[in-house]
Amino acid sequence: MIKTAIVERFANGQAIVTEGIVSTKAYIILSGKVRVLKKVVEKNVEIGTLKEGDVFGEMGLFGNSPRTASVIAVGDVNVGIIDKKYFDKLLDKTPAELKLIVLAIVDRLKITTDKLAKVAVQFEKAKKSLDALSVKIADEEEKR
Predict the structure, then answer these.
(1) What CATH number is associated with residue 132?
(2) Rounded CA gap, 96 and 76, in Å?
(3) Domain for residue 27, yes or no?
(4) pLDDT tens digits, residue range 48-66?
């Protein structure tokens, strides 16, 4: 397990990371769980749950781009923080070819996250339509 000098605590429902805000920290969950939410068409879509030992916010270490998702504490959560300065020291020791590969993976992950969130919204719309249709069919069968 990676050790960090900085530990922060968050209460249930508290935002640890907010989508759209620029930040250059990554987090390691030391205890607790978090929900990862992505805003798509004014709706927050849950794209995952993370637990102790998981890392999030890692894309913030690669540039000054806005966060691609929000992360919310589920219960009490303790996180260790990896800041960009420390990360850059580690990255400086990495061969240039490996840096290029990692940056390509980060870019593709951002694109995939956006696409996944859009698919989730479409799935929710389809589910609501099917549920409404099922109710309508049941009502019509009941009338017979």
Answers:
(1) 2.60.120.10
(2) 40
(3) yes
(4) 999 999 999 988 887 777 8
